[in-house]
Design a protein that fits this description.
- Helices cover 28% and strands 22% of the residues.
- With 344 residues, the protein is an alpha+beta fold.
- It has two domains: 3-201, 2-Layer Sandwich (Fructose-1,6-Bisphosphatase, Chain A, domain 1), CATH 3.30.540.10; 211-335, D-Maltodextrin-Binding Protein, domain 2 (3-Layer(aba) Sandwich).
- The strands form three sheets. Strands 4-3-5-6-7-8-9-10 form an eight-stranded mixed beta sheet, sandwiched between helices. Strands 12-11-13-15-14 form a five-stranded mixed beta sheet, sandwiched between helices.
- Strand 8 (174-179) and strand 9 (184-190) form a beta hairpin.
- Helix 1 packs antiparallel against helix 2 and helix 5 (224-234) packs across helix 8.
- The chain starts with 10 loop residues before the first helix and ends in a 9-residue tail after the last helix.
- Bound molecules: 2,5-anhydro-1,6-di-O-phosphono-D-glucitol and manganese (II) ion (2 copies).
- 2,5-anhydro-1,6-di-O-phosphono-D-glucitol binds next to strand 5.
């Protein structure tokens, strides 16, 4: 559900005003986000010119997940690091593209925030001009030392403790979808003035949708309950609620963005060869879960709320079922072996 905005507000003003109403805010969060927005504008610029500027194709490396690193993965990672390492706002970072934690270089000050990011989401779509994204997640540091480096403890917090989360969708336009726990707002980038302007305010996902989104090519490896659920969504019902339509981009940001706007469910389930699914808790599941909950939806690993998971390793994965409340509840019921009448 969209709430179109007629007033003209830049994201920087929005962030500063939101911070102002929170007690004890020092302006540091706004300054950190200003640095992050610079990185996002630069990545958007590179994405928009891909094909002309030698950013397509592969690097020589593979990442910690065993995936081949595309040039744009590396460029986006480096851009965020270079924008964020020297502001004095962060004590540690972690990125999907970096095997180890990323410390702040010794010459710069440490701050009270922790930044986790997926610099480029949807890598398999980069070279074919299909929507890709960037995801970020921000926490307060929990280790008390405000001078020293952040630690693993600062990075492995449950998603419920996120201070802010956002994703950028490089689609038909560049949009930033963002929350600090006070609803979800959408900002659309106007490249002619270099600003993100508020375009949809406090968006809410419908309680149920008509789209399901999953890589059905993996279905031979699914368990029976999941197979039954997907079969159920495809079976016509007399009330015309089903069949659902299938949409699958293969960029979690794009699949989630459509799910928020139209309703439905996006999933990356566990299967026989990937017992924890594919998506990473820190860089994908948690930020997406915070956004969906703030928009009135639900995110689970099939049993448990994503935001309550306690990650034990920085690149840990989790199955993900995310979207409209009633759709996710229904998926969870199927996974428990509870089927509605006529679905057995
Ligand atoms: P990334 O490009 O950051 O590695 O993430 C890719 C993820 C996610 O965006 C998408 O939903 C999923 O991989 C698609 O995976 P399949 O190709 O296995 O469907
Ligand atoms: Mn990703
Ligand atoms: Mn990525």
């Amino acid at each position: 559900m969209r709430m179109r905005v007629s007033k003209l507000v830049t994201i920087e003003r929005h962030i500063a005003e939101e911070e102002h109403v929170k007690r004890g805010a020092t302006g540091e969060f706004s300054r950190m986000m200003r640095d992050m927005l610079l990185a996002i504008r630069l990545i958007s610029r590179d994405v928009r010119r891909a094909g002309l500027n030698d950013v397509l194709g592969l690097t020589d490396g593979t990442n910690v997940h065993g995936e081949q690193v595309k040039k744009l993965d590396q460029i986006a990672h480096d851009t965020i690091f270079r924008a964020m390492d020297h502001g004095g706002h962060l004590c540690i970072m972690a990125s999907e593209e970096s095997e180890e934690l990323i410390p702040i270089p010794p010459e710069y000050e440490r701050g009270k925030y922790v930044l986790l990011f997926d610099p480029l989401d949807g890598s398999s779509n980069i070279d074919v001009n299909v929507t890709i994204g960037t995801i970020f997640s921000i926490y307060h540091r929990v280790t008390p030392d405000y001078v020293g480096d952040g630690t693993l403890e600062d990075v492995l917090q449950p998603g419920a403790r996120q201070v802010a989360a956002g994703y950028v969708c490089y689609g038909s336009s560049t949009q930033l979808v963002y929350t600090t726990g006070n609803g979800v707002d959408v900002f659309t980038y106007d490249p002619t003035i270099g600003e993100f302007l508020l375009s949809d305010e406090k968006i809410q996902i419908p309680n149920r949708g008509k789209y399901y989104s999953v890589n059905e090519g993996n279905s031979s490896k699914w368990n029976d309950n999941l197979k039954k659920y997907i079969e159920y969504l495809k079976t016509p019902s007399t009330d015309k609620r089903r069949p659902y339509s299938l949409r699958y981009v293969g960029t979690s940001i794009a699949d989630l963005h459509r799910t928020i706007m139209y309703g439905g469910i996006f999933m990356y389930p566990a299967d026989r060869s990937s017992p924890n699914g594919k998506l990473r808790i820190l860089y994908e599941c948690n930020p997406l879960a915070m956004i969906i909950e703030q928009a009135g939806g639900r995110a689970s690993d099939g049993k448990n709320r994503i935001l309550d998971l306690r990650p034990e390793a920085i690149h840990q994965r989790s199955p993900l079922f995310i979207g409209s409340r009633d759709d996710v509840l229904e998926a969870e019921a199927f996974l428990r072996g509870e089927f509605p009448e006529g679905a057995e």
